[in-house]
Amino acid sequence: MDTSTGPADQYPPDIDPKAENEEESSSSPTVLDLTSFQLHDLETVEIPLSLTELDLTANRLSTLDPRISQLPNLKKLSLRQNLFNDDGIQPLSTWDIISALEELVLRDNQLKKIPDVSISKQLLVFDVSFNEISSLNGLSKVSSTLKELYVSKNEVIKMEEIEHFPSLQILELGSNRIRVMENLQNSTSLQELWLGRNRIRAINLCGLKCIKKLSLQSNRLTSMTGLEECIALEELYLSHNGIAKMEGLSTLVNLRLLDVSANKLTEINDIEKLEQLEDLWLNDNQITSLEGIEEAVACSREKLTTIYLERNPCAKSPNYIATLKQILPNVEQIDSELFA
């Protein structure tokens, strides 16, 4: 996931913006990429009516050029990393000529609320990450066609108005102030849920069973129960919590990556049946001994290629590396040490 927050390096453009088209066609260019030109406005730029994609990432724009509203074929619009506030984005709510927009990126601006994009009836991707949004109020107006929603690095305190996205596949709400997992029960197509760096104390997936990637890193979890029915889960990130016991994992038979580093674990449990496990991150815990590890990875020993146990008491054991290599015949990495 891209977590850049600052503006791009400022430098003068070395290409004429009018010529910056991915598809070189004098008659009907479809893509215009003006990334990092540091433009304050688009007065000097030609905007062909044939555009399907317009990328204005990393400029200094604070108002929308009205010519954008006249692009009938526009599918993708990126206003990422500019200076737009709520008023600057407001015209989008009335531009029905671009109502077929499928991807709208407003990441890294100065928004304080979810903008009104109800005019876009075919929206698939909506990104308002890295703003100053305190509430998800307004999402109920976003098209139910949405497949990807990104609202990370804001000030959101509650998961709300997400119930009407039956096609949603990716939900990113990391780095907010959320305390409770809720209102997910209708998101039956959800495959990725990113909730790292919040204030969540308990796992509640509201009955969802189709999730493949789940991140709850850097929360306030003390237990990992609540995952038992997530049998499609392939990647699970639970690092930097207060979890003292590995449990509720035995049913996750498709799990390939398990990250429970930086918790309060003293032993390895409940992964004996995970035949698909390839990456196991257990570093920065309180695991005292390597005894029992061979039994714990009995079903995954052939698959496991990466294991982290550094900064546990057991990592100071005699022949630590040699013991793990003997247990895991196909291991490629132990902590920071790589093997050919």
UniProtKB/TrEMBL annotation:
SMART domains: LRR_SD22, LRR_TYP
Matching PROSITE patterns: LRR (PS51450)
Keyword tRNA-binding annotated: no
A Pfam entry, by short name: LRR_6
Single biological process term from Gene Ontology: response to other organism
Keywords from the named record: Leucine-rich repeat, Repeat
InterPro entries: Leu-rich_rpt (IPR001611), Leu-rich_rpt_4 (IPR025875), Leu-rich_rpt_typical-subtyp (IPR003591), LRR_dom_sf (IPR032675)
Chain positions covered by the region annotation Disordered: 1-30
Protein name in the entry: Phosphatase 1 regulatory subunit pprA
Originating organism: Olea europaea subsp. europaea
